[in-house]
Give the backbone structure.
Amino acid sequence: MLDYLQQQLREREAQALTRVRRQAGTPTAPRQTIDGRPMLAFCSNDYLGLAQHPKVVAALQEGARRYGAGSGASHLISGHSVAHQQLEDRLADLNAPCIPGARALSFSTGYMANLAAVTALGGEGTDVFSERLNHACLIDGARLARGRKQVFASVDELADQLRTSTAPRKLIATDAVFSMDGHLAPLAELLALAERHDALLLVDDAHGFGVLGPQGRGSLAHLGLRSERLVLMGTLGKAAGVAGAFVAAHPVVVEWLIQTARSYIFTTAAPPALAHALLASLDLIAGEEGERRRAQLELLQAQLVDGLQPWVQARGWQLPRSDTPIQPLVVGDNQDALDLAARLDAAGIRVPAIRPPTVAPGTARLRITLCADHTADDVQALVAALTACP
Ligand code: PMP
């Protein structure tokens, strides 16, 4: 067995697929010390820069003083605190304009929230329709679910699959923002199909929540969608800057998750202090400071794209249009992506190279993520370092 694993690891290395971890010695921020070196980082999902916001950090400390360090048990035993409930109530209110009468349920991570939603709603007798570019945790949820799984690559393909499905119940699952591309899924069209075929639409808004829509309420609000069929998963460790996730949905759906979702029931509740910190973070996201930070992100994004476009085109690479602070630079070849990342690294700039299986073979890329705490000079430094590459 050990020989086999060693051989597999060598094969990965030969294909430039080995992944390495780096150690950050400072808080998440555009300027970090990584592996002991000061770096300008374009790799975090802390889009609004709230992970080190003084109000959020103070709320975390206050939460720990009030509730202690850990929750001590799962939600259904004794781990569900006042702070968790306040967070869920706030998230329910935030999502009520898109999901009438919404109730919300908090989770320790988005991975667990998606596993919960897909397995609990995709049981026997339910066909699960999963978008081809979905995040690994939606895919894993569909693999674990007892219902039949089908993968769709377009709205038309989904329409065909729904038409021919004879399952009594149907669940459609999609990322709202594709995490390696930054663009929005055609959610209005998917919702129309869900309405026509009496299906639920599970939307993973990991990268839209906090960033898109009025008050940062996310992709559904951005597109003005509203339906009882929507099941929204949002993460709280990205734009919200802390950790965790939530599912917001019709109260019957949420009650079903509480009663049956194994990755909700059989795990220790997240520390209540995190929920307390998240209340402060949600205030910032919905308030003036959130607006200011979202406006800054838009300016930085335009500057980045304008600065890189001629150089990218001259190389025959691609800078696909993005709806979010995730800007991919698609170079295709794994080694080219690694070489670019290495050159940036040598210049003190950290941008991750993303390779298969995270993205499709032949679409290796740099995944540049912007943060509202970046400055125009930071973006200029990135553009200069990239365009200096031969
Ligand atoms: N969905 C998407 C689209 C994601 O990008 C991620 C995180 N990379 C998750 C879900 C999982 O969220 P979490 O990190 O909170 O587990």
Notes: Residues 54-286 form a domain with the Aspartate Aminotransferase; domain 2 fold (CATH 3.40.640.10). DSSP finds 15 helices and 13 strands in the chain. The first helix runs from residue 2 to 14. Residues 188 and 225 are 7 Å apart (CA to CA).
